[in-house]
Amino acid sequence: MTGKNFFIVTVMIAMFVLIGACQPISNNGDTPVSSDDPVVTPTRVNFSAYQEQAYIDQIQVLLLESFPLQVNVVVVGNLPDGCTSIVGTQAIKTEENVFEIHVYTERMIDALCTMALVPFEENVKLDVYGLDAGTYLVKANDLSESFTFDMDNK
């Protein structure tokens, strides 16, 4: 094969590869795709992603009518863009009467995203079984709210 023919064949192969890469990805018609579809949150830590805590705008402590008492915290906030998703929540008892709420997010490092806030609402369960009667503080970023047990939760 001459140099000219080799060049032409190479250019044609490159063109076919580029044209093939420009084809839309098909979901084979199995499931319709919508912008309203929920985002699937990753189940493991992804080291090619940017991770941080979510922006929290409001918290609300809910005492459930049960015994022993159960406490949930409703966390309301915004994700910074359309590519960021919530990967986990955590409630940590940091002091005798203080719980801290963390909402962890993840965003692919090289993702191209809509730069619009995406609202979210998460329910976080506090581990309050066995706590003594008293007032407890719940913190999330710079927000705080308290709840009181009138009797021991045992």
Question: What's this model, at a glance?
Answer:
With 154 residues, the chain is mainly beta. The protein has one helix at 3-21, and strands spanning 49-53, 55-64, 70-79, 85-95, 98-108, 118-126, 134-140, 143-149.
Characterize the structure shown:
There is one protein chain. By secondary structure, this protein is mostly beta strands. The chain has a domain at 57-149. The protein contains one helix and eight strands. Strands 1, 4, 5, 7 and 8 form a five-stranded mixed β-sheet that branches. The longest helix has 19 residues, at 3-21. The model is unreliable at 28-44 (pLDDT under 50).
| Cα radius of gyration in angstroms | 25 Å
The number of strands is 8
Global geometry = rod-shaped
Average pLDDT for all residues: 80
Work out the helix count: 1
Largest sheet: 5 strands, mixed
Low-confidence stretches: 28-44
SSE-based structural type: mainly beta
Q: What is the percent of helical residues?
A: 10-25%
Strand fraction equals: over 45%
Order of helical and strand elements: HEEEEEEEE
Distance between the termini: 86 Å
Blueprint (SSEs and pairs):
Layout: H1 3-21, E1 49-53, E2 55-64, E3 70-79, E4 85-95, E5 98-108, E6 118-126, E7 134-140, E8 143-149
List keywords for this structure.
mainly beta, 154 residues, 12% helix, 5-stranded mixed beta sheet
